[in-house]
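Backbone-to-sequence.
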C-alpha cells in the first residue's frame, strides 16, 4: 500500500504562524489593490473613526502635524485644490516649445499626500518615500523605538500674508490658506526645470541630459 503521507502536499502556514500573511485593515471605500502593505516600522495604520480636529491655529505647528499625519492631509487639503505644472508633463509635448503654453492648471478633488516629514528629534524636515493614508502617522522611530535615519530635505516656509503661507522645495511650491476653522492646502505648483531654456536646441539637449527621469514623468 502506497504511503499517502509522502505524496500529500505540505501544509501551508496560516496567518497566525506567519505574520507576513496577515491582511491589513482596509480604509472604508478602499480596495485591497489600493491599500498599502503592512505598516513599515514607526508608522501607525488603522481605519480612522474619531473626528479629525485642527492641530493648531499657529501655522508652523499645524504644518509639522500635517506633514506627519494622513488624517490631517485628507481633512485639510481643500477640495478642490489647484494643481499647476508644466504643460508638457500633461500633454507629452516638448519642453520649451513656444507653440504651447508653459503651464497647465487643473482642479484636483482628491487629498494631496506629500513626501516630506518633520523630524521632531532633529527639528528638521526630512524626505520620506511612503505616502500617508488615513490612519497612518509618521513617527520617526522604528518598532523598537530607535530613530530612523531619513535624509534631510531643503524646505523653506515663507509667510505670504497673515492668512497665507508658502512651502518651497527644490521642485515645488505649495501654499496654505487660513479658513475659519483651520489651515488648508490650496495650491500645489510643480516648478519647471526647463524654464528659460533656449528653444529648440538647448531645451532638447537638457531633456536628453535628464534621461530616464524625464521619461518617467511623461
Amino acid at each position: 500500500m502506497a504511503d499517502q503521507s509522502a505524496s500529500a502536499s505540505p501544509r501551508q502556514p496560516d496567518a497566525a504562524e506567519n505574520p507576513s500573511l496577515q491582511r491589513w485593515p482596509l480604509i472604508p471605500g478602499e480596495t485591497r489593490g489600493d491599500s498599502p502593505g503592512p505598516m513599515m516600522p514607526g508608522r501607525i495604520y488603522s481605519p480612522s473613526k474619531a473626528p479629525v480636529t485642527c492641530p493648531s491655529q499657529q501655522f508652523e505647528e499645524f504644518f509639522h502635524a500635517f506633514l506627519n499625519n494622513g488624517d490631517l492631509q485628507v481633512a485639510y487639503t481643500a477640495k478642490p485644490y489647484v494643481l499647476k505644472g508644466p504643460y508638457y508633463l500633461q500633454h507629452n509635448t516638448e519642453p520649451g516649445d513656444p507653440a504651447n503654453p508653459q503651464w497647465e492648471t487643473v482642479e484636483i478633488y482628491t487629498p494631496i499626500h506629500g513626501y516630506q516629514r518633520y523630524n521632531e528629534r532633529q527639528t528638521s524636515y526630512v524626505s520620506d518615500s511612503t505616502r500617508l493614508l488615513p490612519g497612518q502617522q509618521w513617527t520617526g522611530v522604528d518598532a523598537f523605538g530607535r530613530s530612523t535615519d531619513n535624509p534631510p530635505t531643503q524646505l523653506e516656509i515663507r509667510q505670504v500674508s497673515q492668512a497665507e503661507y508658502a512651502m518651497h522645495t527644490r521642485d515645488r511650491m505649495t501654499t496654505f490658506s487660513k479658513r475659519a476653522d483651520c489651515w488648508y492646502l490650496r495650491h500645489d505648483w510643480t516648478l519647471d526645470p526647463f524654464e528659460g531654456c533656449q528653444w529648440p536646441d538647448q531645451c532638447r539637449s537638457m531633456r536628453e541630459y535628464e534621461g530616464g527621469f524625464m521619461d518617467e514623468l511623461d
